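Example A, followed by Example B.
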Amino acid sequence: MGGSLYQKIEKECEAYMSAALKSLVGQSEDLVVFLSLVQKCWHDFCDQMLMIRGIALHLDCTYVKQTSNVRSLLDTGLQLFHKHISLASGGGAQNRVWSSENVRRRETRRSS
């Protein structure tokens, strides 16, 4: 029963995270605005994962600890966030952040 419940929670979290992060794509070309949207999504997700963990604490403390290849619900949530932010952006989010950082560094070097 623990395994089935864990898989259902993981599946629901994954569906939610996928939809939430896909909804951010294309909302703003401004990197600062985009990152603030990602930050809000991250904070909302953390709050929800803490609530889920609180509800399923017994599952986290028994099934997860007794099963060697299963992560805690919070660790699973972190993995899902990382996975879906990469998928939702198709690498675009990371490219935008790195591109912006490279421009900032070049401008800093020129002014030095």
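Example B, a separate protein, is given below in the same form.
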Amino acid sequence: MKSFDQDRFGFAQTHLLAAKKTAQQAAKRQKQMWYSYVPTRKEVATLKFEQLAPMLTGWMCNSVMELIPSRMQIAQVIEILLKRPDATVFSPLLRMCENYVHGA
């Protein structure tokens, strides 16, 4: 069993593998690139803004169907980001996450 830090917000390994396959198949058929990566809780807690921003944006805005995040999952991302000592750096991401959670 994975540690809490390595958890990808509740997605099972089978979902992650299926999403990767879907994204690869879609890339062959069309120009649209679909995102098939969900950051770990540890990545959300430790990565720099420049590394984390594209991960979260890709997950929220361009995920394959298997990985579309729920509002609850993004609320958990917000909770982790707000606990960071450098949380103010993440203001743009936090706003985007808040808009996602509240349907804006």
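On Example B: The chain has one domain: 9-101.
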